[in-house]
C-alpha cells in the first residue's frame, strides 16, 4: 500500500504495528506481575512503565533490584540495555529530523522497538513520504502499542499472583524481540553482530548482576562495525 495522505499514513502505521499487540499484552502483564512480586506498589509499577516505557530495560532493572544489586549497577545496566534507543534516534533523524520540535520530543518519548522497526521499514520502502506523513505513520505505530502497555501493566500489577504460572506469560519477551530483529538481518554485519553477541552472552553468563549482557552487547556492536568496515574496504578494492 502506497501512502498518499497523512490519514492513510496514520492508518497504515496502526495496521503495521497491530500484530505486536499479541505479545505486548502478555509482555506488559508479566512486568506488572513481577514488579508487584518484587515489592513495588501498583502505583509504583504503573509509574515505572509510564516514565521509563522501555520493556527490556524495565525487566533488567527489576531483576537486578530483586538480586539486591547496588543502585549504580541497576542504573548502569538499564542504561546500557536502553542505549539502543540512541541508535534508533540517530537512524530516525534523517527521516523525521525536520519535524516541529514538539513532534520530535513526543516521538523521542514514544520511540520503542516496535515503532522504530515499523517506521524504518516503511521509510525505506517509500522514501518520497512527506515529513507530515512520516510523523503520522510513526504515531500510528505507537497507537495500538503504548496504551496497551500502560493498561496491561496496571492489570498485571492488580492481579499479581492470581495469574497462574501455567499461563507462561514470559514467552512474550523472546518472541517479541525475535519478531522485531529477524527482518532486520539485511547485511552480513547485522548477522555477525547478532551471532557474536549471542556467543558472548553465553560465555559471560556467570558474571554477577547480569553484567555479561553489557559486555556481550558491546562485543557484538564492535564485531558488527568491524565487519561493515571490512566489507566496505573489500567492495572498494573490487571496484
From TrEMBL:
Membrane topology, as annotated: Multi-pass membrane protein
Name the record gives this protein: Predicted branched-chain amino acid permease (Azaleucine resistance)
Transmembrane segments annotated in the record for this chain: 20-40, 46-65, 135-155, 167-185, 191-216
Organism classification: Bacteria, Pseudomonadati, Pseudomonadota, Alphaproteobacteria, Rhodobacterales
Alphabetical keyword list: Cell membrane, Membrane, Transmembrane, Transmembrane helix, Transport
InterPro entries in alphabetical order: Brnchd-chn_aa_trnsp_permease
Record's GO cellular component terms: plasma membrane
Source species of the chain: Sulfitobacter marinus
Location(s), subcellular: Cell membrane
Keyword Electron transport: no
Domain of life of the organism encoding this protein: Bacteria
Alphabetical GO biological process terms: L-valine transmembrane transport
Pfam families: AzlC (PF03591)
Family to which this protein belongs: Belongs to the AzlC family.
